[in-house]
Every structure is written in structure tokens, then in C-alpha cells.
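pasting for ref. prot 1 ->
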Amino acid sequence: MAGFSIEVVQHGSRFVLVVCGEVDVAHADHLAAIGLLLVNSLDGDAGDVTIDLARVPSVDQAGVHALIEIRDAAIGTGRDLVLRGPQPSVSSLLATIGLDQVFMIEMTNQSTVTLS
């Protein structure tokens, strides 16, 4: 998978960060910055935040830290963070380190967000 990108998509009152590429030490800070900016800029009527991981083949320790940082910020504003459609390698990592019990995870066969 070439490159790394994040697209912010709004569905009603819910915001989705659609992530493409590896969430590793080279990209984790970028994800954390965008996620924190989004969470901290939402008004009271905005719903939960979803991170679509269907196009993320792997996540390393720095990526896990970024996800935790965004989750903590979301909870601090009274919202949940949902991880949508993680690939098997990412799901396995989250389960191995016990984060499948911490994060809300929506399992899907493919991303439900269509990129234009």
C-alpha cells in the first residue's frame, strides 16, 4: 500500500476519520494531531468519532499510542471513539494487548465509507 492519508468525512452528527496506509512511527503523530484537532473542535451536538481502519494493514506501538490518545480525548469530551473495520492483523494486535476490551470496535468486511 503506497502512501498514507487521512480523510475526514461527516455522516450526520458523526465524524469518521478514514485512514489509508500503515499507522506507524512515521505517521502516528499525523493521525494523533488530526484526531485530537477533530475531537477538540466538535461542538456539543456532534456525535461520536469513528476511525475507519479498513485500509490500514498494520499498526505499530506509536500507532497504538495515537489511537489511545484520541480515545482519551474523545472520552474527555463525553464522546466515544469507535474503530471501524480493522484488518485481521490490526484486530489481532488489539486483542493481544487487551485493547479490544478498551476500544469500541465495529467489525466489517469492508469500509462503509466511500472515498471520492
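and prot 2 ->
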Amino acid sequence: MKRFTSFIKTTLIGGLFFIIPIVLLVYLIGKVIGIFRKMVAPIADKIDFSLLGGEMTSRIIATIVLLLLCFCLVICQNKNSQPIERMGRR
């Protein structure tokens, strides 16, 4: 019985260590998209997409802005760092 309770305890702790970061990441991404939605709402109001609903337009634009920002940050980070193949040779 002790082995069984140890297994259950280990499984629950491992599950929490797996689930909590995912939930936190989803929550933070939702907050960031909410902030970007407020920033792009005036732009989205000016753009009239007949295929997309009014509220979805600002959400889509906010998501695109967030993805572009992440892409630019990765490019800047890679530009300032050394390429991997040159790191070993000095």
C-alpha cells in the first residue's frame, strides 16, 4: 500500500509541475493579447473586414502584432549572438 500511495503522490506532483507552467503561459499570453487588443483597437475600428467580425478583427491584429514582435526579438537576439558553428573555434 505504501508503494501505491508513493506512486500516486509522485504522479500528482509530476502532473502539477507539468500543468502549472502551461496554465501560467496560457494566462500570460491571454493578458498580453488583451493589452495589445487595447492598443490596436483604434486601428481595427478603421479597418473594415467583411469576413471577420468586429471584435475578432482587433484580436487577430493583436495576435499578429505579438507574433511580429516575437519574431523581431528573435532576429535581434540572433544578430547579436555568435553563430553556433563559430562558437567552438576561436
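The mean pLDDT is 78.
The longest helix spans residues 2-46.
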